[in-house]
């Protein structure tokens, strides 16, 4: 289950403080952007699909954005992330 996977990830990251988990299922890693600026971590993901149907072209577009403030005492260059 998703919760069990998250718990495993949390347990395996005990050396580092985990600031956030974000579900980006359905997005290609190249569609996910992580920026650290102004003491905030901003995660955004965009996905667009184009389908040709009998009625013409259809577009599916989805995006998610999350912004997390860094806790006091954590510098921007300490932030790491993995997909």
Give a verbal description of the structure:
The chain is elongated. By secondary structure, it is mainly β. The model has no long low-confidence stretch (mean pLDDT 83). It starts with a helix and ends in a 14-residue tail after the last strand. Helix content is 13%, strand content 41%. The chain has a three-stranded antiparallel sheet with strand order 1-2-3, with no helix packed on it. It has a single domain (2-72), classed as Sandwich (Immunoglobulin-like). It has one helix at 2-12; strands spanning 32-37, 40-53, 56-69. Strand 2 (40-53) and strand 3 form a beta hairpin. The protein is built from one helix and three strands; from the N terminus they run H-E-E-E.
Instruction: Describe the largest sheet.
Output: 3 strands, antiparallel
User: What percent of residues adopt helix (DSSP H or I)?
Assistant: 10-25%
Write down how many β-strands occur, each being a DSSP E stretch of 2 or more residues.
Answer: 3
Which secondary-structure class do the elements indicate? mainly beta
Name the CATH class. Answer: Mainly Beta
Domain module tally: 1
Low-confidence stretches: none
Q: Order of strands in the sheet with the most strands?
A: 1-2-3
- The shape, in one word, is elongated
| Annotation field: number of helices | 1
Task: Specify Rg, calculated over alpha carbons.
Answer: 17 Å
- Which CATH-level-2 architecture? Sandwich
Mean pLDDT: 83
Family: Belongs to the small heat shock protein (HSP20) family.
InterPro entries: A-crystallin/Hsp20_dom, HSP20-like_chaperone, ODFP
Subcellular location: Cell projection, Cilium, Flagellum; Cytoplasm, Cytoskeleton, Microtubule organizing center, Centrosome
Protein name: Outer dense fiber protein 1
């Amino acid at each position: 289950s998703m919760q069990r996977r998250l718990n495993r990830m949390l347990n395996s990251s005990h050396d580092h403080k985990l600031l956030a988990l974000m579900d980006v299922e359905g997005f290609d890693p190249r569609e996910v952007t992580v920026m650290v600026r102004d003491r905030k971590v901003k995660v955004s993901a965009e996905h667009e699909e184009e389908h040709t149907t009998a009625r013409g072209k259809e577009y599916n577009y989805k995006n998610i954005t999350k912004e997390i403030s860094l806790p006091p005492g954590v510098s921007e260059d300490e932030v790491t992330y993995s997909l």
